[in-house]
Every structure is written in C-alpha cells, then in structure tokens.
Amino acid sequence: MKKLLFLLVALFSTTTFFAQQKINAEKSEVTFSVLNMGVNVEGTITGMEGKVNFDPYDVEKASFDVTIDPSTVDTGTGMRDKHLNNKKNLLYTKIFPTIDFVSKKVTESEDGRSYQVVGDLTIKETTKEVEIPFKFSEQEDGSVKLVGSIEILR
User: Fold this and answer.
1) Cα first-last separation, the chain
2) What integer best gives the mean pLDDT of the chain?
3) Half-sphere CA count of 131, side-chain side, radius 13 A
4) What CA–CA distance (Å, rounded) separates 30 from 66?
5) Which of 49, 66, 121, 130 is the most interior residue, by most CB within 10 Å?
6) Which of 62, 50, 42, 37 shows the shortest CA–CA distance to 116?
7) Which DSSP letter does residue 19 get?
8) What is the pTM of this model?
9) Is 6 helix (H, G, I), strand (E, B) or coil?
10) What count of Cα atoms within 13 Å lies in the side-chain half-sphere of residue 93?
11) Measuring CA to CA, which residue among 9, 8, 7, 5 is closest to residue 35?
C-alpha cells in the first residue's frame, strides 16, 4: 500500500481576521509526495477553494469546508499528470472532479502552538474521518496562512 503525504497550505485574504475567510485560490496549494517504484514523486495541486472560520481565541466555533480540484495536479511531467488524472485506480478526475474536506471539530494542542482539525475527507467514493494537525500565522500583507499535513494510505 502506498503512502501519500499531503501538505496543505491555505492563504486567506481578510480584513476581519476572526470571521469566515474565503480561501485565496491563487496562493493556496496542496503539495504531495509519494514513493512510486522506488522513486519519490512530488507535486502540487493548486485548485483549492472553500471557506474557513477560524478564531484562535474561540477554537470550538472553527469550521473548514474545502474543495480541491485534483485535475490541477502538477508533478512537473505532463504525461505523469495525465496518467494520474485518467486512471481509474488513481485520481480519475473525469468521474471524481473534487476532493472534499468538511470539519467536525477543531481543537488546540496542549502547548497552544498548534491545532487539530477532525473531519471527513472524501477522495473519489471513499470518505474517511481524518485528523489534520495545523499551524496558523498572520502574514505581513494581512492575510492568514494555515499549514497542515496528513499521511494517507492509498
């Protein structure tokens, strides 16, 4: 069974930080790494949209509703990207055009430096409850950056 490591980087432009934010699709991405036939393949998926409601002072009210367009996969090799998009045992984006994540709860770590979001991740026809640890930071331009990672068995 192959393991995929996903790193989600979502940026939000907002003037009222502690309210619902819309994902900035131009600056957000999912990076991934997978060992395939002894070769480490890395890439990005840039088609991310959705809304996040996150206030570090009121974590219990936080929520995530994120949709990713897997057809935006980019491994640096066009033939590989086409293969990922068109094979039934891989992304098969013709039939499954989105990867979705909807949160159930968000908690703060004991040290107060990071958070965990638990929710349903749907890839193709399979929905699994996952926990994604993440950190957030405010950027100089006033946007907010959330960075989390998860390992998935394919």
Assistant:
1) 6
2) 84
3) 8
4) 12
5) 66
6) 62
7) S
8) 0.85
9) strand
10) 16
11) 5
**Rounded (10°) CA dihedral 14, 112, 128, 104:** -60
pLDDT category of residue 8 using cuts at 50, 70 and 90: low
Residue type at position 8? L
Residue with tokens 């959705």: 50
Distance CA 119, CA 46 (A): 21
* pLDDT > 90? residue 99: yes
Kindly report the number of other CB atoms within 10 A of residue 114's CB atom.
Answer: 14
With DSSP H G I counted as helix, E B as strand and the rest as coil, what are the percentages for the chain, rounded to 5?
Answer: 10, 60, 35
The residue type found at 40 is N
H/E run at residue 36: strand 29-36
Q: How far apart are CA 71 and CA 53, in angstroms?
A: 26
Model confidence over 106-140: pLDDT tens digits? 999 988 889 999 999 999 989 999 999 999 888 78
Cβ neighbors of 105 (< 8 A, separation 6 or more) are 60, 117, 118, 119
